[in-house]
């Protein structure tokens, strides 16, 4: 029976894509309609779950199977093509009704839709009220619109349906699911835009219908269920990056389609630059997964085509201007209101989150930091006001920030005879520090040393607060960590990397614990991981173990922690490859900075936390007393016993698992320190030296302090007394080390920043590459030789590739041959070597107190002084200086390829660390109030935007 001219004919297009959980219910709902559609086309859009295998239709219903996966819009378009035209005597009002397998309509849904379009003939597209399939009382989608920039918005979403929006039926667009559209208009407009296969196809169709002079309306009485947005239709899982790409690509395509012809070129030019800026914004907003989608969308629209066809279709059917749809677009004021409401919802989600009991300002945190600052001023008073430091593992930094960054990464390095290769990762840390005090880069090193004690106390206070509940316990932890023998020893011996690692470890510990909560914490952990690893490469094994454990323990949120080592890997990869190519992979763990001799402590001394054999200065201080050898070790063990007892006692409390993890960390740190004493890879003069074990002991001390504080936290009323005793006795163990500058035992000392003599510095002003051959007599009667450029070596010049080399280079052999012949009378002509190496000065260092060194010094002074090629400048603070009167060649500064590689590597570092830094910057306020006595570490994870972060 053919429909009459006055009766609308409806064909339902039902799309199924792996919809086994919903399809039967939707078909049953269609069968129960009070107004049945005249035709039904079921489109199988590549189902693989067998949900359509048993379907069979006849008469006015048919089944179409499409090969491969199809989106909802593509499947609808294919289904419409299968709808045969009606053979009738007069015109027939044909309508198309689009449904998905999850769109079960209420019994009166189609009747209500048809009633709406019959009452208002100008309405050519009508949409239902989409509700949640699992909770029909909540609205999923009720009308769509867009901003002036083309961003699509659902007008009503995830609200309880109380009829509050039923009066607003005139809208710019409706969702594709449940859409009823007049077929003649569908064919006139060309259907869904093929360039919008995933999202916004329905909105675009409605916009074109509006511009063609028609109306679009929502029908609140027509209710249809929906299991999710259209982009999730038929997909088991949709990543955040792909979701962003779909929506952004649709928005950009529509923007290009709707733009005036005169501005089209400007929109096209700005596609990629705007995408880069928005990608940075995604990082700042803690949505790293959206970055790739943002960039991919811009490139797809800019170079993928499709805009031309869409603009032609729009122009062909357009009969009214954009002013006709302007009242239906969403204003910026409303967008702002929606964002404000969304932010309030986010805050409400964490409003009741518990906090730790201790307050930094109210419970002694600020006071222990101030006490540590006073201790620093008293201990390091001779360093106050100094522009630079030298001695031990320290040298001044380069005088300009540009020079600092020139030494970072793969490229030409002028240290020694010069080489092309990677720098130490620590050079990047030094460059960042020097850039902070750009007017005087070396001042940053002075500040790090002076602030070491208060900063370590600050970090330890927050780390201990994380695992304890009593308000005063973090103060004890901060005090113990600030007076650690490893920190005092690293400060007085000039191990800058070890100092930075000690200061950073508590924050890394805290960030790793919190990394599951948000991308800000995870990115902060990544940066801190890289800083610790670069400052103390010997900690790489324990850091990787800690990272792997955090992945296993927090496997449900591993997607955030998995990227933590990436910045460190970018820093270390060139150096690792270079050392492996040399056949010396263990040299990767060598200490950065100036190579300095370190005496190996015993295993017992390491167990008590002593990084050097002098027992933190007690060996020299107790020498006049003539005590038996065994007294000092026993006394130091007794002094360390209260802290150890508190740490072990924590295993008897109810938080034994957390304390056990801290003790395991302490054991890993001890193993790292012990391993460092067995590894000698760095050359110092005529010998090699072990790796500084203090960095491993810093890890061990952090674990012991955390466990001890947990033990104190669960003790009864005697806990404060025990804490006071433990802290005082721990302070006694390092008392002489704090007095190192007054006892003249400190290796570092203030300096003006000048490494070589004023005469060489003056020459270096005119010739920055002037070479100075430094000859240093050794206690064993040998000579140590170094070649310094310009005003002398700086801390950022240092390279473990140079200090751990297994063999001399050809230039190095030439240098040693030159120095050996200059230090004794021979028939050797030094002029070719001096010329090719660019050596204009020879500096003979003082010999010290060794008779063998003095004999070598006197012989070298006589040989060089009597050589007619040299003019004696005289004595300098560093030794005797001679000037070569001949001309020398200008030294190499590396090839063009080395310079290009250097720039490329800096760009890579900037991208990786810049992205991590943007993610690490907190952007959302986190107001909290205490509602529980549970410690923060035991609370469930929360985050503002869990779904997007995944």
What is the topology?
Layout: E1 9-16, H1 23-31, E2 39-44, E3 61-65, H2 72-81, E4 94-100, H3 109-119, E5 123-132, E6 138-141, E7 144-146, E8 152-154, E9 159-160, E10 180-182, H4 183-189, H5 201-211, E11 215-226, H6 240-258, H7 264-284, H8 289-303, H9 307-317, H10 332-350, H11 365-379, E12 388-390, H12 401-406, E13 411-413, E14 419-421, H13 425-436, H14 441-450, H15 452-467, H16 473-482, H17 485-493, H18 496-514, H19 519-535, H20 540-553, H21 558-561, H22 566-582, H23 603-607, H24 618-621, H25 631-649, H26 656-677, E15 680-684, E16 687-690, H27 694-714, H28 719-733, H29 735-738, E17 749-751, H30 758-766, E18 771-777, E19 783-789, H31 800-803, H32 810-822, H33 831-837, E20 839-845, H34 851-865, E21 870-876, E22 879-884, H35 896-920, H36 946-949
Protein name: GT2 family glycosyltransferase
Region (Disordered): 927-950
Keywords: Membrane, Transmembrane, Transmembrane helix
Tally of helical runs: 36
The CATH superfamily of the domain at 9-232 is known as Spore Coat Polysaccharide Biosynthesis Protein SpsA, Chain A
CATH topology of the domain at 9-232: Spore Coat Polysaccharide Biosynthesis Protein SpsA, Chain A
Percent in strands: 5-15%
Q: What class do helices, strands and sheet pairing give? A: alpha+beta
Q: What general form does the structure show?
A: elongated
CATH architecture of the domain at 9-232: Alpha-Beta Complex
Question: What's the level 1 CATH class of the domain at 9-232?
Answer: Alpha Beta
Largest sheet: 9 strands, mixed
Q: Helical content, roughly?
A: 40-55%
The termini sit apart by 54 Å
Region (Disordered): 927-950
Organism: Curtobacterium luteum
Keywords: Membrane, Transmembrane, Transmembrane helix
Protein name: GT2 family glycosyltransferase
């Amino acid at each position: 029976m053919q429909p009459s001219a006055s009766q609308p004919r409806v064909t339902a297009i039902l799309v199924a894509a792996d919809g086994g959980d919903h399809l039967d219910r939707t078909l049953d709902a269609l069968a129960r309609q009070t107004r049945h559609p005249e035709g039904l086309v079921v489109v199988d859009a590549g189902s693989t779950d067998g949900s359509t295998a048993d379907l069979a239709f006849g008469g006015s219903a048919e089944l179409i199977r499409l090969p491969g996966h199809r989106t909802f819009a593509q499947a609808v378009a294919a289904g419409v093509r299968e709808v045969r035209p009606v053979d009738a005597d007069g015109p027939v009002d044909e309508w198309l009704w689009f449904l998905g397998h999850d769109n079960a309509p209420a019994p009166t849904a189609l009747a209500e839709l048809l009633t709406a379009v019959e009452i208002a003939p100008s309405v050519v597209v009508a949409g239902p009220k989409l509700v949640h399939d699992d909770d029909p009382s909540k609205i999923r989608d009720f009308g769509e619109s867009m901003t002036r920039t083309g961003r699509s918005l659902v007008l009503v979403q995830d609200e309880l349906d109380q009829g509050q929006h039923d009066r607003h039926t005139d809208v710019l667009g409706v969702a594709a699911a449940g859409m009823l559209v007049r077929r003649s208009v569908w064919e006139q407009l060309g259907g869904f835009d093929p360039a919008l296969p995933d999202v916004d196809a329905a909105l675009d169709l409605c916009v074109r219908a509006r511009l063609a002079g028609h109306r679009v309306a929502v029908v609140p009485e027509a209710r249809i269920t929906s299991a999710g947005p259209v982009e999730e239709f038929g997909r088991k899982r949709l990543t955040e990056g792909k979701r962003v790409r779909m929506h952004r690509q649709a928005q950009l395509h529509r923007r290009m389609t709707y733009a005036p012809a005169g501005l089209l070129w400007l929109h096209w030019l700005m596609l990629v630059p705007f995408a880069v800026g928005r990608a940075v914004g995604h990082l700042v907003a803690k949505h790293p997964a959206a970055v790739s989608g943002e960039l991919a969308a811009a490139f797809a629209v800019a170079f993928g085509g499709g805009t031309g066809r869409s603009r032609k279709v729009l122009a062909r059917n357009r009969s009214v201007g954009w002013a006709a749809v302007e009242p239906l677009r969403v204003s910026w004021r409303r967008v702002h209101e929606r964002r404000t409401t969304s932010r309030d919802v986010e805050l409400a989600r964490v409003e009741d989150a518990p906090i730790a009991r201790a307050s930094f300002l109210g419970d002694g945190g600020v006071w222990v930091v101030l006490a540590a600052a006073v201790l620093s001023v008293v201990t390091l008073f001779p360093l106050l006001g100094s522009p630079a430091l030298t001695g031990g593992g320290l040298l001044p930094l380069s005088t300009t920030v540009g020079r600092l960054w020139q030494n970072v990464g793969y490229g030409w390095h002028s240290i020694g005879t010069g080489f092309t290769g990677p720098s130490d990762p620590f050079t990047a840390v030094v460059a960042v520090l020097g850039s902070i005090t750009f007017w005087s880069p070396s001042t940053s090193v002075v500040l790090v040393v002076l602030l070491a004690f208060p900063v370590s106390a600050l970090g330890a206070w927050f780390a201990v607060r994380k695992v304890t509940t009593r308000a005063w316990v973090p103060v004890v932890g901060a005090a113990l960590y600030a007076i650690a023998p490893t920190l005092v020893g690293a400060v007085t011996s000039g191990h800058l990397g070890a100092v930075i690692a000690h200061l950073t470890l508590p924050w890394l510990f805290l960030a790793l614990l919190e990394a599951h909560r948000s991308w800000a914490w995870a990115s902060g952990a990544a940066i801190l991981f890289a800083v610790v690893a670069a400052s103390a490469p010997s900690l790489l094994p324990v850091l990787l173990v800690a990272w792997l454990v955090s992945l296993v323990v927090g496997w449900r949120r591993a997607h955030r922690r998995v990227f933590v080592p990436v910045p460190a890997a970018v820093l270390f990869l060139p150096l690792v490859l270079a050392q492996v190519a040399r056949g010396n992979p263990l040299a990767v763990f060598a200490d950065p900075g100036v190579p300095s001799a370190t005496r190996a402590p015993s295993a017992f001394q390491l167990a008590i936390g002593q990084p050097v054999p002098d027992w933190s200065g007690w060996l020299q201080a107790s020498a006049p007393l003539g005590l038996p050898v065994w007294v000092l070790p026993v006394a130091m063990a007794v002094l360390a016993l209260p802290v150890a007892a508190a740490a072990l006692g924590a295993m008897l409390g109810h938080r034994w698992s957390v304390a056990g993890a801290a003790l395991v960390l302490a054991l890993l740190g001890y193993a790292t320190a012990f391993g460092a004493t067995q590894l000698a890879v760095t050359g110092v003069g005529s010998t090699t030296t072990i790796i500084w074990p203090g960095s491993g002991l810093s890890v061990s001390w952090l674990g012991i302090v955390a466990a001890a504080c947990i033990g104190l936290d669960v003790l009864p009323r005697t806990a404060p007394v025990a804490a006071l005793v433990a802290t005082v006795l721990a302070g006694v163990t390092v008392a002489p080390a704090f007095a190192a500058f007054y006892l003249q035992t400190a290796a570092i000392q203030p300096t003006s920043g000048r490494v070589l003599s004023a005469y060489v510095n003056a020459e270096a002003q005119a010739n920055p590459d002037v070479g100075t051959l430094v000859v240093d007599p050794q206690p064993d009667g040998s000579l140590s030789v170094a070649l310094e450029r310009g005003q002398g070596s700086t801390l950022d010049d240092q390279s473990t590739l140079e200090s751990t080399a297994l063999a001399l280079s050809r230039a190095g052999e030439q240098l040693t041959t030159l120095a050996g012949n200059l230090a004794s009378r021979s028939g050797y002509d030094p002029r070719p070597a001096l010329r090719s190496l660019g050596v204009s000065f020879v500096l003979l260092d003082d010999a010290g107190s060794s008779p063998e060194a003095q004999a070598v010094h006197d012989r070298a002074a006589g040989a060089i002084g009597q050589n007619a090629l040299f003019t004696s400048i005289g004595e300098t603070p560093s030794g005797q200086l001679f000037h070569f009167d001949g001309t020398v060649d200008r030294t190499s500064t590396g090839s063009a390829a080395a310079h290009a590689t250097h720039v490329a590597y800096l760009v890579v570092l900037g991208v990786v660390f810049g992205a991590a830094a943007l993610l690490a910057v907190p952007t959302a306020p986190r107001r909290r109030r205490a509602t529980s006595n549970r410690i923060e570490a035991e609370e469930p994870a929360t985050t503002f935007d869990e779904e997007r972060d995944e």
